[in-house]
Automatic annotation (TrEMBL):
Pfam family, one: Sigma70_r4_2
InterPro entries, per database record: DUF6596, RNA_pol_sigma70_r2, RNA_pol_sigma70_r4_t2, RNA_pol_sigma_r2, RNA_pol_sigma_r3/r4-like, WH-like_DNA-bd_sf
Annotated ranges, domain RNA polymerase sigma-70 region: 36-100
Residue span, DUF6596 domain: 206-303
Residue numbers spanned by region Disordered: 1-25
Family in the record: Belongs to the sigma-70 factor family. ECF subfamily.
Name of protein: RNA polymerase subunit sigma-24
Domain RNA polymerase sigma factor 70 region 4 type: 140-188
Length: 446
């Protein structure tokens, strides 16, 4: 997570919690939307585990939502809408399987009908055991699947991102991403990959994929890839909740602590990142008094755990970088030399042009804009940065600091064409106007 470049790039409660009160207080369509947001992942995971078919689980989940839209306006929203959706979806799955003459399908019917009248209760946010979504996370992170398919499938199925949103996160066309998701589902079905949490001997291989998925969900929530809003807090908070479940499940895994710490330290700034009119507020200009200090303290404690007892992992290092930002009184007093040193470590663990971009932004704060710009220009040919708007935005900011306003305006235009949210575009338009006004004779347009 770039603490400078990425900053230039309606919250819900804990998943599973719903406000008390009569069912008729909430319009049916709004209730379905709220329940879908909170229960879809749990419902899909439970159905996929029971029937062993992701496509069937997705189809009957959608049919249950459609049934709710038909019945709830007439009958009222049920006291336990999640359980209602589960029962409805399971019955629809049984009806589909009943029409299938295959022997395996008939066996599935027997197991499903035996439990038909006894829906599995949805665990609350404080349940001691992980809910069934984690079983589906580990299934989607199975090593039999290609790495990019693992994350894409889980983002689509469990986080509820649309295929275009997942595609944008991976910087690939939507059609390419759709093929990946279909391919991954087919592989799970044909290879009979089980829907379960793996044993201790399998965890080292499988855990990194699960952590990557959770962090990808958080990243989309922290800085939405598209749409009118800068943040999707429901996704960010869901990722934090899932990381807490992983932490309870795997308390000895230091990278789980590192991931949770990283997300808490970044999410602690959520209120300060948006101004009164919904505008983007950069890290330099944020009111640090609005940062969530309780969340920061929890995150700092997790950083200590993540960095103790062996070589650091990438999430622990990123969490340490975030902690240095959160501990500083302002940008000027931030320990930039230490942040650059941590980025050096991160580059050895996960070498990538995005990490190099983040390091260049930190070097610019430590050594000046010219030094940072030199590093950014060395990354100009990287394909992964071609459609990554923080790259031209970071160049534009450094060019402005050097007084090269015409060049800065050109870079701001490039970033403006790549930015995904309206809040980012509005911010870039303001920066572009300022650069054009400051350029001698006016910056060239077009």
């Amino acid at each position: 997570m770039d603490e400078r470049a990425a900053e230039t790039a309606a919250p819900t409660g804990p998943a599973g919690e719903r406000a008390a009160g009569p069912a008729t207080e909430l319009p049916a369509e709004s209730a379905v939307e709220a329940v879908f947001r909170e229960e879809r992942g749990r419902l899909l995971a439970a159905l996929a585990r029971r029937f062993g078919d992701l496509d069937l689980a997705e189809e009957v989940t959608s049919e249950a939502i459609e049934a709710a839209l038909v019945h709830w306006p007439v009958q009222g929203v049920p006291p336990k809408p999640g359980a209602w959706l589960m029962t409805t979806a399971r019955r629809k799955a049984v009806d589909r399987l009943r029409r299938d003459t295959a022997y395996a399908a008939r066996l599935a019917i027997l197991g499903a009908e035996a439990e038909r009248a006894d829906p599995v209760p949805s665990p609350g946010p404080d349940a001691d055991l992980p809910d069934e979504r984690l079983q589906l996370f580990f299934t989607c992170a199975h090593p039999a699947l290609p790495a990019e398919d693992r994350v894409a499938l889980t983002l689509r199925c469990l986080a509820g991102l649309t295929t275009p949103e997942v595609a944008r996160a991976f910087l690939v066309p939507a059609e390419t991403m759709a093929k990946r998701i279909v391919r991954a589902k087919k592989k799970i079905r044909e290879a009979r990959i089980p829907f379960r949490v793996p044993g201790p001997d399998e965890l080292p291989e499988r855990l990194p994929g699960v952590l990557q998925v959770v962090y990808s969900v958080f990243t989309e929530g922290y800085a939405a890839s598209s749409g009118p809003d800068l943040q999707r807090r429901d996704l960010a908070e869901e990722a934090v909740r899932l990381a807490r479940i992983l932490r309870r499940l795997l308390p000895a895994e230091r990278e789980v602590a590192g991931l949770l710490g990283l997300m808490l330290l970044v999410h602690a700034r959520r209120d300060a990142r948006i101004g009164p009119g919904g505008e983007l507020v950069l890290l330099d200009d944020q009111d640090r008094g609005r940062w969530d200090r309780t969340m920061i303290e929890e995150g700092r404690g997790l950083v200590v755990l993540a960095l103790t007892g062996g070589p650091p992992g990438p999430y622990g290092v990123q969490a340490a970088i975030a902690a240095l930002h959160d501990e500083a009184v302002n940008v000027a007093t931030t320990d930039w030399p230490q942040i650059v040193a941590l980025y050096d470590v991160l580059l050895t663990l996960t070498p990538s042009p995005v990490v190099a971009l983040n390091r260049a932004a930190a070097v610019a704060m430590r050594d000046g804009p010219e030094a940072g710009l030199t590093l950014l220009d060395e990354l100009a040919g990287e394909p992964r940065l071609r459609d990554h708007h923080p790259y031209p935005m970071a160049r534009a900011d450094l060019l402005s600091r050097l007084g090269r306003f015409a060049e800065a305006a050109t870079a701001y235009r490039e970033a403006l064409g790549l930015a995904g949210t309206e809040a980012e575009r509005a911010h870039l338009r303001r920066k572009l106007d300022a650069a054009e006004s400051a350029a001698p004779g006016g910056a060239p347009r077009g």
